[in-house]
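Practice problem: Endoplasmic reticulum transmembrane protein
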Amino acid sequence: RWQKIFMFPLWSKMAVFWNKMFLTIIVLLIVLFLDAVREVRKYSSVHVNEKAANVNSSAFDHIQMKLFRSQRNLYLSGFSLFLWLVLRRTVTLLTQLAKEMASHAALETQVNDATEAAKKYMAENERLQEALSGKGDSKKKESTDATEEKLKEEVERLKAELQKTSNAFHKAKTEVAAFKKQSEGLRREYEHLMKEFEQLQQSLNKAEDKKDL
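Answer key — C-alpha cells:
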C-alpha cells in the first residue's frame, strides 16, 4: 500500500526540489539560531549592566522581557534545527530500509527459483541412475554416463549459485535488521526530544504569562 502511495508521479517531481528546499530551511534555521545567540549575549550584558547601575524598575523589566524573548527564540530555533536534521536522517534511513526490503524480496525469490531448479535436476539425475541400473547396453550406458556427468556438473554449478544467493540473502537480512534497529533508536530519541520540547514550551508559556501579569 505504501509503495503504491509513494509511486505517485507527484513525489518524483517534488524530489527534484527536495534537496534545495532542505538546504534553504537549514540555512534559514542557522541564521535564526545565530541571531538568537547574538540577542541573548546582547541583552545578557545589558541586563547585568543595568542591574549594577540600579536604574528604574520599568527599564529593568523591559530589558528582562527582551532577554526572555531572545532566550525563547534561541531555544525554539535550536530545537527546530536539531529536529529538522533528525527528520532528514530518519527519512534517509527509511528510504534505505525500503530499498533493502525490496532487494531482500528479490533475493528470496531468486533463492526459491534456484532451489526448485536444483530439485528438478536432482530428480532427473535419479531417474537416469535408475535407467542405467536396468540397462546393459554399453553404448547407451556411455551416453547416459556423459549425460549424467553433465547433469552432475550442472547440479554442482546450481549448488554454487544457490550458496552465493543464500549468502547474499543472509547479508541483506542482517542489513535490514540493522536498519530496523537504527530506525527504532531514532524513533525513541525523537519521541524523547519531543517530550522535552513540550515541557520546555510549557515552562516558557508559564514564564511569559507571569511576565504579562
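Discussion: Residues 7-124 form one domain. Students who identified this feature from the C-alpha cells alone can consider the problem solved.
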